[in-house]
Amino acid sequence: MISNNNWYCFSQFDWVYVTGDLPAHNDWSQTRDDQIEVLVNMTTVIKTYLPGKQIYFSIGNHESAPVNSFPPPFITGKESISWLLDKSAEVWGEWLTDDAIKTLKKG
Question: For the whole model, what pTM was predicted?
């Protein structure tokens, strides 16, 4: 965990890349709710310990449930990936432009 004692180190950079794959890799025991919980919790940690930094997020192949399942945008309803994309846009919104949010929600 990042501590306040390390703030000097973290104050020396201007942005952060978060490359995805935040959930544990126990692939077949994960649920959509588990994935959303990790997304929200990790975003909260980043926001708490890296205030004022520009954060650039990406979604890894382990964010979906089941793993590696990213249906194309024409798949709608229960089988779509909108549950993850919409929540990502919501929790990352402060770092994204309106156009980036629209793009993220499209998939």
Answer: 0.87
Are 106 and 95 in contact by the 8 Å Cβ rule? The answer is: no
CA atoms of 56 and 54, how far apart (whole Å): 7
Name the pairing type of β-strands 54-57 and 15-18. parallel
Q: Which amino acid is residue 68, in one-letter code?
A: N
Whole-angstrom distance, CA of residue 61 vs CA of residue 27? 10
Q: b/e for 60-95, b at 16 or more Cβ within 10 A?
A: eebbbbebeeeeeeeeeeeebbbebbebbbebbeeb
**pLDDT tens track for 4-62:** 566 566 677 889 999 999 998 887 889 999 999 999 999 999 999 888 899 999 999 99
DSSP 80: S
CA dihedral 96, 99, 105, 107 (to 10 degrees): -100
